[in-house]
Amino acid sequence: MPKNKTHSGTKKRIKVTGSGKLTHAGAGKRHNLEKKSTKMTRRMDGAKEIAPADAPRIRRLLGI
């Protein structure tokens, strides 16, 4: 059997933590930042955890 290939778009966007959780960068921090309040852009910082309902599908894409 051939090996499964990792989905290259997914591997660029999602990281796996040491405990096995999936994290991604939140949306909305790419452009139009002058319009958004500082409070809002601070809230957009950091990694967000993937929703449990989406995790199995993403794990399949990553080949985990």
Automatic annotation (TrEMBL):
It comes from Nakamurella multipartita (strain ATCC 700099 / DSM 44233 / CIP 104796 / JCM 9543 / NBRC 105858 / Y-104) (Microsphaera multipartita). Residues 1-44 are annotated as: Disordered. The keyword Plastid does not apply. This is Large ribosomal subunit protein bL35. The keyword Ribosomal protein applies. Keywords: Ribonucleoprotein, Ribosomal protein. PANTHER family: 54S RIBOSOMAL PROTEIN BL35M (PTHR33343), LARGE RIBOSOMAL SUBUNIT PROTEIN BL35M (PTHR33343:SF1). Residues 1-15 have a biased composition (Basic residues). GO terms for cellular component: cytosolic large ribosomal subunit. NCBIfam families: rpmI_bact. It holds the Pfam family Ribosomal_L35p.
